């Protein structure tokens, strides 16, 4: 006991105890920590980029260049980010069938896994907007009224008050937003595809984007205010009043003419 007590008083005893504690801690961490997680994620990302490059070489390089630098037939993809790829390819706009004033939405030819691989490759060419998570574009509990104000201020000039779409100049158009997936609406606001301006989070925060998505889903959903009749493009009382004036008044005039003609025949007889 005296020898043990003497060793405890040794000047290096505290250092030895600290080293032993550190060694024990390091051993436990090495034994139980998921050491391979980060490495596995890097390997998975690297594989996705490699597969995406193969897909890109077949379906995209002819227009956008072998390294995404762009050509006379397609813009540069350096810095557009994964969100732009997910939107363009996920809505079938890319690969484009033919050049034109605007590339329309069409049937999607890639699976979501392949789209993710393409997005990973293009994202590796330069930093850009990242594909949003489900939490980011989930509009549950969003402020629909505020979304309507934001939409009418920033979007209605092209997309109409209820997202019906409309014609622009030189053969371009703002597409209808009816039935568009919430993720693609969010991505469109992020990247500003084709003629649309972009609204990054510094300009329009994530919460505001969710409000706009909630508004679009409300006015174009099954419970929209137009149920029970034609919404006539969602233009409001102008188009509805014109419809009533032409067809309603026209019908009354026709009835009046028919009554007058039959009244005249009755008098003659």
UniProtKB/TrEMBL annotation:
Q: How is it modified after translation?
A: Binds 2 heme c groups covalently per subunit.
Q: How does it sit in the membrane?
A: Multi-pass membrane protein
Which residues of the sequence carry a binding annotation for heme c 1? Answer: 60, 63-64
Does the keyword section mention Transport? yes
**Keyword DNA-binding listed:** no
Leading EC class:
translocase
Q: What is its EC number?
A: 7.1.1.8
Q: Where is the Cytochrome c domain?
A: 47-126, 142-263
Which SUPFAM superfamilies does the entry mention?
Cytochrome c (SSF46626)
For this UniProt record, the keywords arranged alphabetically read as follows:
Cell membrane, Electron transport, Heme, Iron, Membrane, Metal-binding, Repeat, Respiratory chain, Signal, Translocase, Transmembrane, Transmembrane helix, Transport
Signal sequence annotation: 1-30
Please name the PROSITE patterns in this protein's record: CYTC (PS51007), TAT (PS51318)
Q: Where in the cell is it found?
A: Cell membrane
Catalytic reaction annotation? a quinol + 2 Fe(III)-[cytochrome c](out) = a quinone + 2 Fe(II)-[cytochrome c](out) + 2 H(+)(out)
Single GO MF descriptor: iron ion binding
GO CC list:
plasma membrane
Q: Which positions are annotated as binding heme c 2?
A: 155, 158-159
Report TM segments.
242-261
How does this chain assemble? The cytochrome bc1 complex is composed of a cytochrome b (QcrB), the Rieske iron-sulfur protein (QcrA) and a diheme cytochrome c (QcrC) subunit.
PANTHER family named among the record's database cross-references: CBB3-TYPE CYTOCHROME C OXIDASE SUBUNIT FIXP, CYTOCHROME BC1 COMPLEX CYTOCHROME C SUBUNIT
Instruction: Indicate what this protein is called per its UniProt record.
Output: Cytochrome bc1 complex cytochrome c subunit
Species lineage:
Bacteria, Bacillati, Actinomycetota, Actinomycetes, Kitasatosporales
